[in-house]
Amino acid sequence: MTRNNVYRSSRHFLRRWTITFLFIFIAFATLHAPAQTSADGVIHGQITDSSGAAVPNAKITAHSPAVGGTFAATSDAEGNYRLIELPPGENYSVQTDVPGFAKFDRSGLIVRAGLNVTVDIQLKVGSEGQTVEVSSEPPLIDTQSAEQATNLSGELLRNVPITGRHDWSDSLQITPGIISASSDAEGGQTYFLRGSENENHATLLDGMDIGSFEQNWPSNTISIANESLGDIQIKTGANDAASPAAMGMVINLASPVGADQYHGSVFYLIGPASFNGNNVSNGNAAASASQQPDFSLGGPIVKERAWFFFSGRYIHRDDGISQTAAQTAYLKQIDPSFNTFANGSRGFVFLGNSSVQLGQRHRLMGIVQYDSRKQDANYQWYTQDIAKNQYGGGAYGLRLISQWTPNLTTRFLISYNNKGANSSLSAIGGVGSKPEEDVYLTYAQSAGTLVGQGSSLATLNNLSSVTVNPAQKESFTGDVTYYIPKAWGTHELGGGFYLQPHELSKVTTYYANNGGIVQQDAALNNPNDPTQGYTIFHTHSVNGTSSFLSSYIGANDYAWYIQDRWHPVPRLSITAGLRPDWISGRDAEFKVTTQHSWNWAPRLGGAFVLTKNQKNVVRASWTKITDITNASYLGTAATSTVTTTDTYYNKDGSVFGTPIVTPGSTSSSLGKTFDPNRHQGYVREWLAGYRTQLKGALVVDVSYIDREYRDRPAEYDTNQIYTTTNGQTIWSGLVNPTLNNTYYVTNNKWNWFVYQGYEITVSKQTSRLQLFSTYTYSPDHLAGTWQPNDPSAIIEPTKFANNAGLGSVRGYVTNDWTGDTRNRMWQRQQFRTGVTWKAPYKIRLSSTLTAQSGTPGGPIITTLAALGTPYTGQYGPATLLISGRTVSNPLATTYRFKYQDRGTGQIWCPTLVQWNTLVGREFRLSDRQTLEANLNIYNLTNNGAAQQFVNGNNAASATFGELQNVQQPRSAQIGLRYHF
């Protein structure tokens, strides 16, 4: 049987199994503590009398004025109770009324997304009319789980000045273990967690997956206003088996829910361009100008039965493009018509939900989230507004929660999202009519070609191509949890499935200039005087192809899990689980299976309560966490799908060498083969920590985390013929003369990233003061050795060592001289603090302070020409004529590592410090109506730290060591919020 037949057969089997499982589950459901990752919280505890004896069969209810409905539970034979699936909210009260005892009423409790807190109840003998009211500090730490999680309230995020966008992703800016940086072009933030990349995160809204299969960048493909936030839980380590696969964060967003009273807000934010300072002398600051109206409304549809909530925002923002004095001068001298411009962002975002109490046992929730916005993405060296993008899409879900008995709970959710980029060509303004023109300072010869040195000084005309990339993802999830009160302790047995059967990402490329010459590279005629013009040294043609389907990637992720949370004694909780994911990847364009694998992820964690007051907990865990499915990681079956021609020119305009033709891929000549045992990359993680709740609702958490990123995506070239004689390796040609490169796609067994982090977090949540502060120290390194057939491994085999600029966990980097060297996630120290205080006279004072080490520039390289030793053919000729065409020798490269190994001599960006403040006042209009006015000031000290190098690692370049992408300057915004 062929591999494709096996794939189709397996797919048919899995589809049939999935449908069968769904019917079984639904049938069972139409017959207690939750296991699936949830945006809701849990209150549990034990009910005893004054002697300490357990009180069984006691009815317990919970209610919050901010949440519609009443939640109920019954204590078991041991007096244990569990109030589950509680929507996040403030001022929950827990009540119980048992004959022969006074009524118990505990108020002021706080429920956070995904948080499991303990509230023990001691009843006192009394008459039916007596009530014992208890009001003390609410418990704020999870005593049951070893997970490393951060819980932030929507109120905190609405009242601390984190970024000028006021978006849900602001929460990530103050999350422990996070590295953040402003994106190169889009004006927002990118977020990396303990070595993971920006797309390794899973983002859930009320339990449904709203991440894009095209690219899981949480802050770019998902836009949700802060007014739409109820609560956020961000899991950053020790994820249990119920959590979806993701090497990065698992983010649970809880939208507010309607209550039995109408409530809502209108918020208007304005930050004119004139409110910005300048922190780039003689250059262009990344100034921001914005106008954002927000609204929200929630309330009853039918009191005590059905509720709704919806909110929206219109985005009207202009993000300035940071350009240094040198960059600005080059742009003006190369293109005298250049004027500074901003990246514009326009669009509408919406979120809505409706909850229905279907009797005492069932609660149904429908969720809709939509965001679609146009976002310019021009880089620092673009001379005009030529990069138009459109991001976002819709997400839709339906969730049913059923509590059949005090011991049995089920949950089912179906959802769909079409988050992507550039839904159509018209959405981004079409494609250009000229070749893209990139101007460099100088160029040099390497491997028989001419290569621009350093980064581009200016890009003119238009982009060489644009892409349209719609994507989609469907999800079916279900859980059943059964509580066993007495079996060598108590057990919470959980099991469920997480099915994503139809993930798709389709990329169509449209070429400029009607598919003729689409790109021209040029160098200055006089590097010391850009006004003397430039000369083209390279043209790139796609030979008349105006558009083509560049990738069509599909995937299936069929996961299930089993888990037991065992309490052998009341203070000890041991959680053991297993999460296998059956993942299939396919190139739908060429009908090739690219991955077909089981990915086994066992989890083991424990938490022990040190003190009787439930406020001191130690925890430890070992986990194997599979990476999330991502279109770019799964990849395609072809290295290229269009034939290109590269022609090089001498300074006098004559042709240099022979044009190099790179054949396109066809169904009979794909250029890639796949390891039959290829599977998802994963993290192997150890974690140990201690958390305590002190007086004044102060929580301290101290942790150590050790992570190894194993089996990342990798490919190595198998088409080059390398011959070794007397210890000398030379290039002798191609195995397949019709292609330049062929790749074997597999898992990286040769090297892996190692993260070691020490974290301390302090938080405080009271009605007047909310504080969140964290510090992380993380010395990291790269372990292992070179990948096969890397030219750097052949030429400089002793220089692998690296302990600073570690590249990317994305994989697919086959040449260490020219790979990704931004390395933003590998930074030594991070400090983040957010605080908001309700001061006397209804004044609010808030502040955030963040500081993080600078980014390393990556392994330092130079060129043979700079070393005074030009290439002399020691690794074979620079080019060979093979089957009538000229092919470049990969070993004839002129790049070399400058120092004794890759870790030595690296340069670092400056420390990035940002201090923001807010001053506001509340005006009470009535008992239920308030008006708030505030002034936000960002980067109060007007720091001007650059976050990237112009040319991070080539010491031979004239731009080596120059910095770019300077942080946003001091700016201000005025906000007005009417709340009722």
Q: What does the secondary structure layout of this molecule look like, with pairings?
A:
Layout: H1 3-29, E1 41-48, E2 59-63, E3 71-74, E4 80-86, E5 89-96, E6 103-111, E7 116-118, E8 121-122, E9 131-134, E10 148-153, H2 154-159, E11 178-182, E12 189-193, E13 202-205, E14 208-209, H3 218-221, E15 231-237, E16 250-254, E17 263-271, E18 288-302, E19 306-320, H4 325-334, E20 342-358, E21 362-376, E22 388-405, E23 408-417, E24 420-421, E25 436-440, E26 443-446, E27 449-452, E28 458-460, E29 465-468, E30 471-484, E31 490-511, E32 517-524, E33 534-541, E34 547-567, E35 572-587, E36 592-609, E37 616-626, H5 631-634, E38 644-649, E39 655-662, E40 672-674, E41 682-694, E42 698-710, E43 713-717, E44 720-725, E45 728-734, E46 743-747, E47 751-765, E48 769-777, E49 781-784, H6 791-795, E50 829-839, E51 843-852, E52 861-863, H7 864-867, E53 879-882, E54 885-888, E55 895-897, E56 912-924, E57 930-938, E58 946-949, E59 963-966, E60 971-979
Parallel strand pairs: 1-7, 1-8, 6-9, 13-16, 25-32, 40-46
Antiparallel strand pairs: 1-4, 2-3, 2-5, 5-6, 10-15, 11-12, 13-14, 15-16, 17-18, 17-60, 18-19, 19-20, 20-21, 21-22, 22-23, 22-24, 23-30, 25-28, 26-27, 29-31, 30-31, 31-34, 32-33, 33-38, 34-35, 35-36, 36-37, 37-41, 38-39, 41-42, 42-47, 43-46, 44-45, 47-48, 47-49, 48-50, 50-51, 51-56, 52-55, 53-54, ...
